Amino acid sequence: PPRFDEHATFSSNYELRIYTSDCYYLDENNNWKLDGLLFEPLTNRYQTQCLSIHLTTLDVGSSSVKAGS
């Protein structure tokens, strides 16, 4: 890599966000579970697509966290 003899300063104005999403179902003991649920390829930061191998009611949880918060 090139070497610099002078001190360099870099600054940038940006915001980093972390997006998470999960699929859940409520089991017979009222516990949220995610086994048997899969994410589909269309899952992104705007939508969550879930696939279930069992017949249960699903819920989708998502969150957006500003990095450094």
TrEMBL record:
> Superkingdom of the source?
Eukaryota
Name of the molecule in the record:
Uncharacterized protein
Originating organism: Rotaria magnacalcarata
Query: Which lineage is the organism of this entry classified under, starting from the top rank?
Result: Eukaryota, Metazoa, Spiralia, Gnathifera, Rotifera
